[in-house]
Amino acid sequence: MLAGRRQIFVRLMECNLDCRYCDTDFEKSDVGRLESQPGSGTFLDLPQPLSQQKITAIFDDWCSRLPGAHHSVSFTGGEPLLHADILAGWFPEIRKTLPIHLETNGTMHSALRLVKQQVDFISMDMKLPSTAGCTQQLWELHALFLREAYGSNVSVKVVVGELTTDSEIGQVCDVISSVDRTLPLFLQPLSLPDGTVGLSAAHILHLQELASSRLSDVRVIPQMHKLLGAL
Fold it and tell me: Which CATH number fits domain 120-231: 3.40.50.1950, 3.20.20.70, 3.40.630.10, 3.40.50.720?
């Protein structure tokens, strides 16, 4: 939903899923990385965990150096809701500087309840067996999560590939339309390790046509940072 807007990204460790296409090292570590300057692509190593005061100071510093450049702070992972109890304490203070954007795999509805009043935007993934390769079916968890998120500024994203089926897109539409068919759905073409897109234009347009017959706002947006070569 915020594609094209500049954000500060906070990437948290650990995840409750193991998606086949994941390009992120989310293993627990005693060392975290901090970009030395906004947008520089060079990093400093910092001992973890970082305190809320340290993180807030970084945000304030970046916003003072680049006033007006950053739209929001995006908390991602891994799966950030694994740390919902900590984030519930952080978000009110951070939100004084910038709005909060939460990027989540959409499986932890109870954890969302702890933080959703302090979140301005929610980007919820739905994991398709054809691309994520998860061993468990997640449709029921996704439905529970979307119902919990409804009323917030929530959108849904699915990563689609050449093996994504009409049936999978139908199940995505079932979950969304059971809550509100006007919620935005973003189809994100699978990015291959070499940076190319993992499906044909004809197939992605076909999947968009299917979803658009049932939902009112279906968009195709690639991974912007992959195209830009950022991070």
Answer: 3.20.20.70
